[in-house]
Amino acid sequence: MAEPEIEKLRSVDDHLNLVLDTVQLLAPMELPITDVNGLTLAADVVAAMPLPPFDNSSVDGYAVRLADLDGAGPDSPAELRVVGDIAAGSVYEGILEPGTCARIMTGAMVPHGAEAIVPLEWTDGGTESVRITRVPERDEHIRVLGSDVATGEVVLKAGARLGPRQIGLLAAIGQVHAPVHPHPRVVVLSTGSELVEPGAPLGPGQINDGNGPALTAAVNALGATGIRVGIIGDEPQGVLDAIEDQLIRADMVVTTGGVSVGAYDVVKEVLSTLGTVQFTKVAMQPGMPQGFGTVGEDRIPIFTLPGNPVSAYVSFELYIRPAIEKMMGRETGPRRTVTATCFGAFSSPNGKRQFARGVYDAVGHSVRPVGGHGSHLVGDLALANALIVVPEHVTEVVDGDDVEVIVLDGGGR
Ligand SMILES: Nc1nc2c(c(=O)[nH]1)N[C@H]1C(S)=C(S)[C@@H](COP(=O)(O)OP(=O)(O)OC[C@H]3O[C@@H](n4cnc5c(N)ncnc54)[C@H](O)[C@@H]3O)O[C@H]1N2
Ligand code: MOO
């Protein structure tokens, strides 16, 4: 008997390429530095002031002139008159005269005439006069003006990812705003008349909307802004209106459900009329039915994901995550994998790339499959921390095989 013909499906790589060719880097804007965590800098930042902004002490001690300490040592301390007390934030007026010193605190401005700071530990701690038993080098314990950052220096380059350390630097140089590619606003809509808001009573045949909360969390975990609109039914005009209403505030729209071949697959029906959204079968499992294109005058990218929760989540990791990374100006591309030894056996469909759920052990470089193939298995999905990638031509994974694994949750892109 002849082999059944395998339906021609779009490859995972071709689908990702289409997505990445379509989505665009978001236009730069100036945002307050309190709102730029995780964002990408859109232009070089030049320091408008030096750091440190003035010579200051790195220790609690005494500001001294070196000539006064000639020959000082443990058995022959130098004795100096203490003429001032300089706290951080205060200034010593005048010049330090020969034979005198000033008590100085960490971060306080070094007085004119001082050439080094003697740490408290090298002295008897005197307040009227002080005995010093060790001589510092010139400039020792002085943090010199501009020695960290010079005025006019490029301190952060366009393309840098802003995190706590970079935001601290921006604040230190007095920058209130930063030019960044902003957070993509990703609107998440769940279609299906069987869906109920979690917590509300379930009628016969109804289920809780799991996809909306899951995908919104996935968007937020990337540093973009997830906007969960909630459940929209199965009525074509209602679905169309809901999508159009959201375009004003969306940089991307994500829907789940209604894209296979059923009589109520409304997303497919509605968006087919708008023209630019293609509905395809991608050679992957789960996540075969995929819709992608743009909607509205601003050509907002839209992903119409399959309703099955595992399919929707895996689709997010494979396509939406790289798309959001591109919009944010981050490095992007296919998900990276690591090689691991698979403890467990399972089958895989011929001609489709399978993304089996697994528990990855980074120390042992191994992975254990969890759950079965079913795209509804959210209990097992929640236990997983990795996707085991089984190539299209492989139909069996046997115990001890080396497999490629996408590490989820902070495993990098
Ligand atoms: N005759 C065929 N039937 C199906 C095919 C096919 O090729 N021929 N493909 C199957 C595959 S694969 C998938 S994946 C699903 C995709 O279906 P839809 O995207 O049309 O999604 P729905 O039918 O609306 O729902 C599927 C499934 O998921 C549940 N669901 C939907 N939304 C949610 C949500 N927000 N939270 C939790 N669960 C949700 C829904 O109740 C269904 O059980 O089609 C197969 N069928
Ligand atoms: O391709 Mo579907 O996403 O397996 O359930």
TrEMBL record:
<keyword id="KW-0479">Metal-binding</keyword>
<comment type="function">
    <text>Catalyzes the insertion of molybdate into adenylated molybdopterin with the concomitant release of AMP.</text>
</comment>
<keyword id="KW-0808">Transferase</keyword>
<dbReference type="InterPro" id="IPR038987">
    <property type="entry name" value="MoeA-like"/>
</dbReference>
<feature type="domain" description="MoaB/Mog">
    <location>
        <begin position="187"/>
        <end position="326"/>
    </location>
</feature>
<dbReference type="InterPro" id="IPR001453">
    <property type="entry name" value="MoaB/Mog_dom"/>
</dbReference>
<dbReference type="Pfam" id="PF03453">
    <property type="entry name" value="MoeA_N"/>
</dbReference>
<protein>
    <recommendedName>
        <fullName>Molybdopterin molybdenumtransferase</fullName>
        <ecNumber>2.10.1.1</ecNumber>
    </recommendedName>
</protein>
<dbReference type="InterPro" id="IPR036688">
    <property type="entry name" value="MoeA_C_domain_IV_sf"/>
</dbReference>
<dbReference type="InterPro" id="IPR005111">
    <property type="entry name" value="MoeA_C_domain_IV"/>
</dbReference>
<keyword id="KW-0501">Molybdenum cofactor biosynthesis</keyword>
<comment type="pathway">
    <text>Cofactor biosynthesis; molybdopterin biosynthesis.</text>
</comment>
<dbReference type="InterPro" id="IPR005110">
    <property type="entry name" value="MoeA_linker/N"/>
</dbReference>
<dbReference type="InterPro" id="IPR036425">
    <property type="entry name" value="MoaB/Mog-like_dom_sf"/>
</dbReference>
<dbReference type="InterPro" id="IPR036135">
    <property type="entry name" value="MoeA_linker/N_sf"/>
</dbReference>
<keyword id="KW-0460">Magnesium</keyword>
<dbReference type="Pfam" id="PF00994">
    <property type="entry name" value="MoCF_biosynth"/>
</dbReference>
<comment type="similarity">
    <text>Belongs to the MoeA family.</text>
</comment>
<keyword id="KW-0500">Molybdenum</keyword>
<dbReference type="Pfam" id="PF03454">
    <property type="entry name" value="MoeA_C"/>
</dbReference>
